[in-house]
Amino acid sequence: MQPIAQVEGRFTDVDGRYAIVVGRFNHHVVDSLVEGAVDALVRHGVSEENIDLIHVPGAWELPLAVKRALTFLEPDAVIALGAVIRGGTPHFEYVAGECNSGIGRLQLEFDTPVANGVLTVNSIEQAIERAGTKAGNKGTEAAMAAMEMVSLLRQLSGGIQVGGDQ
Question: Where does 5-amino-6-(D-ribitylamino)uracil bind (predicted)?
Fold first, then answer.
C-alpha cells in the first residue's frame, strides 16, 4: 500500500515579500499586532527590506488597500491587521463582516495568501488580551499563518511526491 502523501508548510523556506496592511483605528491595540507580525517575520528569516507596511484609516478600508498591495506589490503574502470593537450600534457587524468577506475574496481572486489578523471583539479588554497578553498576539499568529501558507503553496506548485520526503 502506498503511503499517504502529506504536505504542510514549513518555516524554513518563507523568505519573500510580505505586505502588512494595517487599520489605524484602535491603534493602541493594533500597534501591538504590527509589532508581533514584524517580529515573527524577521525571526523566521524575512528581511525587513522585504516587508511593506501600509496604513489605512480602519478595518473598512483594509480590503481595498489589500487589493492594491496584491496588484502592484505582488507580495508572496499579505497580512491584514486591525481591530473592530463592538459598540452600541450595528456598525460593528457591517464593518467586521465586510472586512472579513473582502479579505477572503481577495485571497482567492489573487491566489495569494491573505492572513486575517483583524480582531473582532466585544470589548477593549478582549482586544488587549489578543494583542499580546493572555490570549497571545494575533498579529504574530497571522504572520505565522502567512508564512506557513507561502511555504505550503510553494510546495504545491512544485508538485507533491507520494511517499517522498516532504
Answer: 25, 59-61, 83-85, 116
Binding residues: 25, 59-61, 83-85, 88-89, 116, 130
* Cβ contact 81:120 at 8 Å: no
Nearest to 13 by CA among 164, 156, 162, 161: 156
Active-site pick, 27, 28, 55, 91: 91
pLDDT digits (tens, 9 = 90+) for 96-106: 889 999 999 99
Q: What is the pTM of this model?
A: 0.90
Cα–Cα separations (whole angstroms), residue 124 to 71, 75, 94, 101, 130? 34, 32, 19, 23, 10
List residues forming the annotated binding site for 5-amino-6-(D-ribitylamino)uracil.
25, 59-61, 83-85, 116
The answer to whether 44 is a known catalytic residue is: no
CATH architecture type of domain 27-150 = 3-Layer(aba) Sandwich (3.40)
Binding-site members for (2S)-2-hydroxy-3-oxobutyl phosphate are 88-89, 130
Per-residue model confidence as pLDDT tens digits over 33-69: 999 999 999 999 999 999 999 999 999 999 999 999 9
In the chain, domain spans: 27-150
